[in-house]
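Example protein was shown:

_____
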Amino acid sequence: MNYLKQYRIPFTGLSLGTHDFEFDIDKAFFDCYDYSIVKDGNLKANVNLLKQENMMILQFHIAGTVMLTCDVCLSPFASKTDIQERLIVKFTDEGAAESTEEIIVLAKHEHELDIAGLLYEYINVAVPHYMKCSEQGENVTCDETVLAKLSNLAPTPEQAEEKQADPRWDALKKIKYN
């Protein structure tokens, strides 16, 4: 987890106004999260921070490629991603204020903001539910040998009907018409 320390923004010494930060996201970043959907990637995160008296507004722009696994042929492929997000950080003296998806509440004594979890979440949420080489990849098609093996495993309509012919169901169908 020491690797993730570089994804912290120390905001106490910053003057009021706009500040830009740039972070590189690669395989080492995703290795810090055990159950990540994305295992590898090459992304650049640009964070624009607008510091005000009682709050900060962060604009995230994350662009690059992530390595995904095709749900059809199980081949790894690179998929481009471009993410735009906004986050508001408010400061409070009260410990009872709760954070939401769009607003984070920090105590006034905090001095840095850890955005590693936010970057991880934004990237993983942007991954499509159904990953297919030919749809999300560029100039990539599914592995033909795997598709050929899958088509040989699929039952024909005649085989599917044979499996449905069960004498127990025939007996139950007779009861239905009585």
